[in-house]
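On to our target:
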Amino acid sequence: MDHETLRQALENADLTAYEAETYLALINYGRLPAVDVAKKSDVPKSQVYDTLRSLESKGFVNTIDQDRLHAEPADPVDILTHLRERGELFTDAAEELEDRWEQPDLNDHRVGVVKHADTVLEHVRTQIRETDIAVEIALTADQFESLRAALYSAAERGVIVHIAIYYESGLTERSNAWDLSKPNLEVRIVKIPGPFIAVLDRSRTYFAPNSRSTESYGILINDNILSFINHWYYQTCLWYSWEPLEPSQELPKSYISLKEFIRDISSLHHDGGTIAVTISGIDVAADEFRTVTGTVTDIYYPDVIADDSPSLEQLSTYAVVRIDTGDEILTVGGWGAVFEDIEAQKITVEAISLDGVGQS
């Protein structure tokens, strides 16, 4: 490697032009008086002393005060390690840029595959900032802490955020440092291994295999139907079966799944409770977003039971809730509703009264 190329490499390793020239002079000639360093490099005499002191602070040279200042190159072990680490950094950066360049534009494609799981997290971090309704996400504690600020911000602006964290040793102690008291945010601990998965606003899904996988890749999905399939997997395997890390019975309480809402309020409704709700979603006939408020008048699903909460199996086909707004009776369906009046996207229980006694 010629002198000019080596100098450029040192500059890429965070040395200034003067520092690179000075260091190469000392490597080539060994110990030199400061004035001779200036002679054997392109560094002005007025700059050579400051340059040597700077190189010494970085560990590249040692200076010796005799009758005049001398300098010699330091043991290169640390320097070589630094250069190799920088080389790896540049290589990784090049691969990441190539990966991102090759990523499909999800505005034009329904499904795309990326080479690295970390790329999926970066996509999710960006897209969480754009969510309006809901985030369903399953991830490790490290991944949660990486995305925590974006998730907290989403919850604070009214997005319902459901977080399933895979169990690991020391998780309980670690979770003590997390603020899980935010409205619209709920965390559950999942005691089975699983992939990273995020379903955002019912339309985008992000997937990456867990650490046990022998391959690193990610899948980006921009499709309502495929997102529904992932939502159902999330609900059945990563949400329904596990208890909240910090249970709360406070109202109002919001749901993004009509089936989960039915499971929670079914028994109260059949016991004569009055359940006031606000439902936001799509008016099926008008194909427009709509928000209505009313009380639950009826719950229907195959083989309705009145003395217990329905099972997931009983709710796996279809389920309908009727509400009285005071002006009209509306039927409310879940994700993909066709025949109902409203496709619910967010259901908020505002108040529950049982035998005339208000509960909140």
Remarks:
- Residues 77-102 form the longest helix (26 residues).
